[in-house]
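Reviewers of the previous submission asked for a worked example of the structure-prediction workflow described in the proposal, so we include one complete record here. The input consisted solely of the amino acid sequence. No template or homolog information was supplied to the procedure at any stage.
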Amino acid sequence: MSAMPARPRLRSALTRGIAIALLAGFCAPPAALAQDFPIEFLRMMAARRGAPPASVRTLRQLLAAQPMAEAEKSRVAAILDAAEKDAAAGRTAAAQRGLAEARAALAGTPWTPAQAFASSLDVAPRTPILDAARPVAMKIGASYEAVTPPGARLRLSLERRGGPAISLGEKPLVARRTETVTVAIPAAMATGRYAFISEIVVDGASLARSSAQVDVVRDLASAEARAERRLAAVKASEDAAATVRYPYALAKSVASGQRELERPPLADRLTRSDDVLTALEAGLDPIRHGVGDQRRAYRLSGADELMPLRIYVPTTWKPGTALPIVLALHGGGGDENEMLEVDGGKFGKLAERYGYIVVSPFGYRPVGAWGSPITLPSVYGSTTKEGRAVGGPERARMLELSEKDALTALDRIATEYGADRKRMFVTGHSMGGGGTWYLAHKHRALWAGAAASAGPFFVDGYDLERLRGMGVMIVQGEGDPPSLAADRKLAADLLIRGIGVTYLETPSVNHGQTFGASLPSIFEFFERQRLRGNPTIKLPLK
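From that input alone, the workflow returned the following structure tokens.
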């Protein structure tokens, strides 16, 4: 159980709370970097460098901490050295075999011919959405050549958290590099999120096991046809219709490989779709001008895709009420639900209390970065150039559409609810913190203030002078070494330039805890922006 976070310490440009000596020169040691760096960017870095070298580094770290005889450690180290050389020379299959042997040794598993075969295979459904109305195709691939033992079989099952495994049967394995097998989903199986378990079995023993997250649905094509017939028979706003259609569009995008499975199970999206349809059939539009916590969708021009969107509108809102509005940007790998689910829905509770509309977009893709070509670990002030070559037409398009999704969603909701555009704010965490800096800098005229949480991910050439005169806040946790040093330096540089900044650093919280711990202070900061030009407003505001 983690300790309760200590009370945040607020430091402002109006005080002398930031000591320059504290802000300069901090550099996290490599071990801390490997452990604490935001996981979404580590994945991006691994993909650029190639999996074998990254795996060699990881296994070396595990080997160093492994209690085993020195002779065995030396043997495994030699295997890893050879795998690294094979990877560098382009001998990927040999490198993968070496890595598999090293992993087996670290797990205490004998490296037999049968184990070498089992470790060579990669088994996964062709799509993570499994329709019980039709057979499911499984792709079996081998990362290196190995002799198939007699009687080798593939055992498949589905598991739900807290429930028993549901067997999908066993299939014989043949000595081919790749093959496809099909399995049937039991007709009576409940829909929802499952773990798809694949096991390689030889002589009755399970030698390798892998798990993939899947959603089980039932006859999705027929369900979509029924939804379209029901939708055609009612009057619906554009976004209500988009919300009804979204889960079916998502399923097609996932099946085609354009999108990944989302954190909310598809079954939840389908339930939301049906609930909206039921309300429309009763003569009510639950989307347009709805209040409270809302899950909805809209069509993003340029992408020609339906984008999910989550918003919070105070229950006190009435037409003609111009409320302030906040754009909330999630971290890498997240979705539109992340920000409004921090600390049990703290964002929505504070929005209700202070009277703010919150817009939490998806960002086109989980690592769309809100348009900012972030290139970690090149945080603010770093001399590291690692990863600055990330790009290409596909990446450029993702960045463009991620930015467009954020700004389009904000504009649509601001228009629909008549928000106060003079009190428009942007905030975000981690990748969303980097997006906050990027959008605040690029679209300076939009914002009354910006609050970036643990996201000092800057593009070379940012002009900090563009932030002069705008309310700027930086929030950090003392347990977040990689971005902590960069945010301290950024705050110091802003102060040295005479650019106002409010700096909040919370003791005893890590990267994932920073935003939730800071949210009350972020809302207080947004409220204090009303004092600009309004010195008669009394504090505290809430």
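Residues 50-111 form one domain. We consider this example representative of the routine output the project will generate in years two and three.
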